[in-house]
Amino acid sequence: MARVRISDVAAAAGVSTSTVSLVLNDRATRISQETRERVREAAAAVGYTPNPIARGLRTQRTRTIGLVSDEIATTPFAGRMLAGAQDAARENAHLLFLVDTGADRAVEQEAIRALVDQQVDAIIYACMWHRVVEPPAGLPPRSVFLDCRPASGGHPAVVPDELAGGRSAVRELVAAGHRRIAWVDVEEQDPPVASELRHRGYLDVLDEAGIVPDPAWHVRGVGSAAGGRGAAERLLDLPADRRPTAFFCFNDRMAAGVYVAARHRGLEIPRDISVVGYDDQQLVAGEVDPPLTTIALPHEEMGRWAVEVALGVREAPEPDPTHLMPCPMVHRDSVSSPPAAAANSGRRRA
User: Fold this and answer.
1) Ranges for the HTH lacI-type domain (predicted)?
2) Each residue's pLDDT tens digit, 64-103
3) N or C: which end of the chain has fewer CB within 10 A?
4) Which CATH class is domain 6-50?
5) Which fold has domain 64-155+300-325?
């Protein structure tokens, strides 16, 4: 079916094509209100819609944004991040194009080239998890990094404030009276940025509370329920006077594994041990019994921030263009004061 052209509207309204163009683009002219209404009625009658490419050439705006990601569309947090980005795009009259590259550098380069050729108004470069990346070739200067930051700087970026999140988690346990607090870390050949920052937060709070950490309290496992269970088993095997009464876990899946290990020992959460997770992962944190106290990753807020900065609705921070998005505490039912005997033992050692 042939596309309805502006000349078809002009013929139906009995005016020139220039008049139609002025009316449909809301240009200030001396065209009468009667003629304006006739042109709009004719456009509706013949089914005319503006050509976005032609309009983009005139206005230098296509009302589109490209979001290029590695594996974000297959991760449990993708929905929140994309929802935030899409909501912000829609509120600013833009359409969001998502390209999931599967972490293939060649696919990534082709996607960026295609989006640039389509004259998108902005490009957002997103990652599955918080990391430092090398900006891909061909990325426009005004691009925004989402859940990652460029190694060389120079681009606006938004990442979770992992350090502050780690501090909040451990302060929650210290405030409940715990002094033997374990850090159940993820075991990877190349530790993620989040692991290092959360660990720093853990150590900061122990130091401010006057607690000397036992090296045996820092254990590692794969980032799954099985990994968390194995790490917790090693901690629960420690002598009674060194055994942790609280566990801060790298993620909620590992925290779920701590639950399993505790129950196999006849321990009850939070009566016997307290647990704090990280991520606030859907179908995990709120579904375990008792529901898990955790730190939420602000994926929706980060997605919104990236789009607003890309469109100039929000200013990027200066002089460091990387914005640390707060990670809020989600209070549930997995934290209480330590058992009396353990609490007294901790105070004697302190």
Assistant:
1) 4-59
2) 999 999 887 667 777 899 999 999 999 999 999 999 998 8
3) N
4) mainly alpha
5) Rossmann fold (3.40.50)
* DSSP code for 219: E
> In this structure, how many other beta carbons lie within 10 angstroms of the beta carbon of residue 227?
23
The C-alpha atoms of residue 68 and residue 111 are separated, in whole angstroms, by 7
Q: What is the CATH number of domain 163-292+332-349?
A: 3.40.50.2300
CATH 3.40.50.2300 location in the chain:
64-155+300-325, 163-292+332-349
Q: How far is CA 74 from the centre of its chain?
A: 14
Q: What was the pLDDT predicted at 346?
A: 47
Q: Which residues contact 168 (CB under 8 A, 6 or more apart)?
A: 201, 295, 327, 329
Distances (CA, A) of 58 to 6, 50, 51: 15, 12, 11
Task: Tell me if 84 sits within 8 A of 300, measured CB to CB.
Answer: yes
